[in-house]
Structure to design on (258 residues):
């Protein structure tokens, strides 16, 4: 079921989204060589709680029988795509780090969810890796431009896919964007490629979406490690992930996590 948020709920989501964006900026600023990813996780949790939110990934389960996600952020390095558990891994010069973060805000009352992600370099990185990050981030921007009443999910998907593939990179197909707001994950699914096997949803005012291109230098196939969470590129290639939570408004799109 696709939910429609009220103008007041979108206002609250925007408040929470701005706070979350500021928290992510602070975490990114702390991502330096020698820093452990678990230290970034601890910082993110501290900042979220101080701002009156709740980490929305912590204790999250895909299904009731699954183990709960134990951390506040997902901290994926190099060939790790998403959902990587923070650890004692120390960031190194030349790494790329994807930080995915979500927050329920405010603590009191209903509480609404926003979600965002960035991939950042740790020091100097090769030119091809710089291009990977730029192309993935630009594909998110182009996808967001398609968000307006009357357009469809496929318009977002097509914009992302065409830009990524024009640079000879691969769109991940096993993982997609999603609705968000009342829950961490809601309908509709938002693939980053045109998928004719799913119903092509029309965008309507009040829908809130998490658009998140995931892109690889190599093949698009992904595998999950034995921890049950970490998704890595099956061929070991570098990958990037960018995400914003956006709302469909009468005038077009509003980026809630800008």
């Amino acid at each position: 079921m696709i939910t429609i948020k009220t103008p007041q709920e979108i206002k609250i989501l925007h408040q929470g989204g701005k706070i979350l964006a500021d928290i992510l900026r602070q975490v990114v600023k702390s991502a330096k060589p020698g820093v452990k990813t678990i230290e970034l996780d601890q910082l993110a949790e501290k900042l979220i709680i101080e701002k009156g939110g709740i980490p929305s990934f912590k204790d999250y389960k895909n299904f009731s029988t699954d183990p709960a996600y134990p951390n506040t952020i997902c901290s994926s390095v190099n060939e790790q795509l998403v959902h990587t558990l923070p650890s004692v891994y120390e960031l190194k010069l030349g790494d790329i780090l994807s930080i995915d973060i979500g927050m329920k805000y405010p603590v009191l009352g209903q509480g609404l969810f926003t979600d965002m992600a960035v991939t950042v370099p740790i020091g100097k990185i090769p030119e091809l890796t710089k291009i990977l990050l730029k192309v993935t981030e630009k594909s998110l921007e182009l996808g967001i431009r398609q968000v307006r009443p009357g357009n469809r999910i496929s318009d977002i998907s097509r914009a992302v896919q065409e830009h990524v593939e024009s640079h000879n990179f691969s769109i991940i197909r096993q993982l997609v964007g999603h609705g968000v707001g009342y829950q961490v994950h809601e309908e509709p699914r938002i693939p980053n490629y045109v998928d004719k096997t799913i119903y092509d949803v029309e965008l309507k005012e009040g829908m809130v979406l998490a658009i998140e291109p995931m892109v690889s230098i190599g093949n698009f196939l992904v595998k999950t490690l034995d921890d049950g969470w970490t998704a890595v590129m099956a061929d070991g290639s570098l990958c990037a992930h960018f995400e914003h939570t956006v709302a469909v408004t009468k005038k077009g799109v509003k980026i809630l996590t800008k």
